[in-house]
Amino acid sequence: MSTAQHSRRRFTAAALAAGAVLAVTGAASASADPAAADRGPKPTVVLEHGAFADASSWNGVVARLRHDGYPVVAAADPLRGPAADAAALRSVIDHVQGPVVLVGHSYGGSVISAAAVGEPRVRALVYVAAFLPAPGESALGLTEQFPGSTLPDALDPVPFTNADGSTGTDLYIRQDRFRAQFAADVPAEQAALAAAAQRPIAQAALTEPATAAAWQTVPSWDIVTTRDLNIPAEAQRFMARRAHARTTEVAASHSVAVSHPGLVADVVEQAARATR
């Protein structure tokens, strides 16, 4: 082999080696790029259900958020009253590492509004067909300001007695009215299961006034359900405007997290991205 051929082979090998080094370096640079890394770790999404539901009502939303890499906790709401339930939710938040996006459905909106007050790790609030009470307001009072709720006629009150002898009333939705009232756009069999498994809310929880409102200082997003028979759409719009929330409207029932989990997950992820 001639000297020229040896030189050409050495040059080609050197070029290939250099190309490989550049490829590795480029890949490392890309992974170090903040945009490629999606601007750091994702916040934990904490989901708070409302009355007449349980944490499983978030299942479709949880599946999508987890698929997209978000850590998720679907908390159990005791449904006893905004102050007590907010204290329970804060214990969940305290157990989470890093920043948090709080999401509340229905009465759960009252709970997240109270739980996030003074909690700097809560970076965003997402309200899903939810209450956003101002101090002094209650869920029942806000509902009664606007026409359209048919919930009172669908309720099934059940008296209870606590271990200390105190009494109260739990509210359920009658199972034969549940789908029409709460989940009209959910398949009948799925709505029947939800009706059987519904968690009752203490009647007193709906009249307990809010004492603080985190939406006054924390960036907020809101999903307004225009076919809602629990919280009238106009009531939802009023609260969203007052909170300067980024609002998405959807023709859905009160059970929008069940009937439109992809839309709910998309709005939650918008809030999560905006806070990073």
TrEMBL record:
Molecular-function annotations in GO: hydrolase activity
Pfam (any one): Abhydrolase_6
Protein name according to UniProt: Alpha/beta hydrolase
Record-annotated AB hydrolase-1 domain positions: 45-267
InterPro entries: AB_hydrolase_1 (IPR000073), AB_hydrolase_fold (IPR029058), Sec-Metab_Biosynth_Hydrolase (IPR052897), TAT_signal (IPR006311)
PROSITE patterns listed in its UniProt record: TAT (PS51318)
Transport in keyword set: no
Keywords, comma-separated and alphabetical: Hydrolase, Signal
Signal peptide region: 1-30
